[in-house]
Amino acid sequence: MKNINEFITQHNNYITSENLDINIHRTAITILSHERLIHLIIMLFTILFTFIFLALSLILNFISLYIIFLIFLLLSIAYIAYYFKLENTTQNWEIILYKKINSASSGRT
Fold first, then answer.
1. CA torsion sign, 32 to 33 to 34 to 37?
2. The pLDDT of residue 68
3. Quick one: CA dihedral 32, 89, 101, 22, positive or negative?
4. Model-level pTM?
5. Nearest to residue 15, comparing CAs of 90, 96, 101, 94?
6. Residues of 47-61 as b/e, b for ≥16 C-beta within 10 angstroms?
7. Helix, strand, coil % (nearest 5) of the chain?
8. At 1, is the pLDDT very low, low, confident or very high (cuts 50, 70, 90)?
């Protein structure tokens, strides 16, 4: 499977095309929602370990624990930024889906 960033770019290009298939779009939202859930779990554990190493470094006062804490802090910041991108993309795609469903249902009546 391709990189998730390539997947998002490819699907964003597909969304801008005139003929958006709702089923394909729902499948893309499902894939992205799964990716989002996995990264939420990873992000929460990374933040948990960040706080654990912060507490250990303050209690034990070892320089190596401070270094590990800083590494986990940087990793947590990166995960938060990445999760923010996944969350916003999923919400934007869901808004597009709802607009497409509403326009299709109003066109039938």
1. positive
2. 97
3. negative
4. 0.83
5. 96
6. bebbeebbeebeeee
7. 90, 0, 10
8. low
**Selected residue with higher pLDDT from 16 and 69:** 69
Task: Provide long-range contacts, Cβ within 8 A and 24+ apart, for 44-48.
Answer: 46/72, 46/75, 46/76, 46/79, 47/76, 47/79
The predicted pLDDT at position 107 comes to 66
Q: Structure tokens of 82?
A: 């990445």
Which tokens go with 75? 């990793």
Query: Tokens 């109003």 belong to which residue?
Result: 106
